[in-house]
Amino acid sequence: MIAVARGPAWEKGGERGVADVSARILIAEDEPHIVESLSFILTQAGCTVSVVYDGAAAIEAMQARPLPDVLILDVMLPKRNGFEVLKWVKSEPGLKDVPVMVLTAKGQQQDRETAEGLGVDAFITKPFANRDIVACVKRLADA
Question: What is the sign of the dihedral through the CA atoms of 85, 115, 111 and 72?
Answer without folding.
Answer: negative
